[in-house]
Design brief:
Blueprint (H helix, E strand, L loop, with lengths): L9 E3 L8 H15 L12 H18 L4 H29 L3 H5 L5 E3 L11 E6 L6 E6 L6 E7 L7 E2 L9 E3 L7 E9 L12 E4 L2
Antiparallel strand pairs: 1-2, 3-4, 4-7, 5-6, 5-8, 8-9
């Protein structure tokens, strides 16, 4: 009897165009970081230097728009569209190159879902690093899991006896927690949302002192 091989197809989630300003900015930083020197995708339809310019311009206009004014708001919208267009072109290219290769897709810095519709429990995500190099905030770098639509993060300041849950966020690779209290030791965990059980197991805990 012959064996039927099921070829799985994966898709990059394109919802970053609906992300908040901060999440879109972080997604761009994720993609730049993940694709720099990535041997799976040596050439891209938009050079990473151009993506970096778009991200920097968008970040600057976010800061400037806080001062108010129609012109500053218009410039921010224009910068956002340029960044979204660059990310979309790269995402569509990578999707075409590696739609059956989950590891390759995930290495791009984008979020990925499985098009095979049968729900299953999500894998346990992992925290790769937590940085305290900016006073009053912690930056968490996590590892995404297949079919994780959103992510939830929690912190504890008493060694895990009690927890504070933070709002859901769309990407696992970078999340900024603020405000944090300098000199306070935080334990950080996160989980993915989705799958047949609605939530993945909590990640490994990471403990760090806020500055």
């Amino acid at each position: 009897m012959s064996t039927i091989t099921v070829i799985r197809t994966f898709r990059i989630l394109m919802g970053f165009s609906r992300n908040t300003e901060g999440d879109l900015n972080n997604r761009a930083l994720d993609v730049i970081d993940a694709l720099t020197g990535n041997p799976r995708f040596p050439t891209l339809p938009v050079p990473l230097s151009v993506v970096a310019q778009c991200q920097s311009a968008f970040s600057d206009t976010i800061t400037q728009s806080r001062k108010g004014g129609i012109d500053r708001t218009r410039l921010k919208k224009t910068a956002r569209l340029a960044l979204e267009d660059a990310l979309t072109k790269i995402a569509l290219f990578i999707q075409g190159e590696a739609r059956h290769d989950y590891d390759a897709l995930l290495s791009s810095g984008f979020e990925v879902m499985d098009l095979n519709r049968q729900p299953s429990p999500l894998d346990q995500p992992a925290i790769l690093a937590v940085f305290n190099n900016v006073s009053g905030q912690l930056t968490v770098r996590g590892q995404a899991v297949l079919n994780g639509r959103m992510y939830k993060l929690r912190t504890s300041t008493d060694g895990g006896q009690t927890w504070t849950e933070w709002p859901l966020f769309p990407g696992a690779r970078i999340k900024v927690l603020k405000p944090t209290v300098p000199g306070t030791v935080y334990t950080v965990e996160f989980c993915a949302v989705g799958g047949s059980t609605k939530f993945s197991p909590w990640s490994n805990p990471v403990t760090i002192m806020a500055t």
